[in-house]
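B., you asked whether I could sanity-check this one before it goes into the benchmark set. Here's the sequence:
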Amino acid sequence: MTAIATDVDTSPAPRLPRRRSKLRMRNTIIGWSFILPNFLGFGLLTLIPVVTLFYLGFTNWNIFGTANWTGLANFQRLLGDTTFHTAVLNTFYFAILHIPLTFVVSLGLALLLNTKLRGVAFFRTAAFFPYITSIVAIAVVWNLLFSPQYGPINQLLHSIGIANPPTWLQSTTWAMPATVIVSTWRDMGYYMILFLAGLQTVPRELHEAARVDGAGVWQRFWNVTIPCLRPTTFFVTVMLTINSFKIFDLILVMTNGGPGNSTLVLSQFIYQTAFVQNQFGYASAASIVLFFICIIVTIIQFLINKRRSA
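And here's what the prediction gave me:
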C-alpha cells in the first residue's frame, strides 16, 4: 500500500508580539493626542513662566533692559522693606480671618441645604451665584453697602442703637474685616458645593444606627458626619488656604490696598512692584516668597492630616 500524501500548511505563524507592539504604539499615540493639548497649555502658560520666575528673582530685570544677575540682593532688600513686611502681615491677617469664617459658613450652608426642603435647588443656586458674579460688580455693590453715611449697613446699625458705627473701607482698622466679609460671601457658594458633594457620601445607615443608640443631633454631627467628611474637609482647607494667600482681585477693586497700606497684600505688592514700578526682578523675588509660603503651609496641612488619619 502506498501512503497518501496530504497537504500540510508550512507557512510561518503570525507574529503576535509585533502586532501587540503596534497596538501598544497606536494606543500610546491616541493617549498622547488627548493629553498633549492640555500639557502644552500647562507648559507654555504655567511651567515655563514659573521656571522663568525663579531665574528673574535673582536678577534686576525690568521690561526695557537686560536681566543682570544680582544673586540674593533682591531677597536682602525684601528683608529691609517695611512695605513688604506690611503686605506679609496683612496677607496672614486676611487668611486667619477668612479661612475659618468661610469654612464654617460653607459647611453650615451645606448642612442646611442637604435636607429635603421645598425649593432647595433654588437656594443652592442662589448661594453659588456670587462665586460666578463679576468681581467689579461685587466690589461696587459692597462699597455702596459699606458707605459710612448712606450705606444700609450703617443705617441698620444706627437703627439698633449703635451711635458710632465703623467707617468700614475708610478705616484702617475695619477695612480688612470688611473685605473678609465680602470675600466670604463670594466664596461660600463654591465651598458649599464641595461640602454638599461630601455629605452625599455619608451613609445614612450610620446616622440611623446612631439615632437608635440615642445619639443627639450634635453627637451625630461630631461622631458621624465630621469623620466621614475628613477627605472633603482636607481638600477644602487646602484650597481655601491657598486661595486666601493669593487674594488679589477683590482687594484691588474694593480698596486698592488702602486706606494707607492697611489692606495691602502680597499679591498686590507684587503687582504694584512689577507693573507700576517696573521692577520685575524684585517682584519675582516677592513671588518666590509667596510661593514658598503657600508650599510650607500646604505641607504642614498634609502632615497634620496624615497624623490624624494614622
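One thing to flag: The chain is about 70% helix and 0% strand. Otherwise nothing jumped out at me.
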